[in-house]
Amino acid sequence: FREKLELLIKRIQGVDTHIGKVPKRAEYSLRIKNEIKSMKAQLNEAIQKEEFEKAALLRDRIKELENRFNA
Q: How many CA atoms lie within 13 A of 66 on its CB side?
């Protein structure tokens, strides 16, 4: 049932993920969270490819963003 519903939503909306408006006060934190999530995916990919220098840079950047976000 889920697959049929997702296809229907995608056909009607053009996408199957929510991209609606975000309140101004939450916009910054949501953008940072999404950036961290994306960088973690890149980090895992770099580790799988054994690109350890790139992985270390991503790890450090993620920590920096998390510290700034949680401060």
A: 11
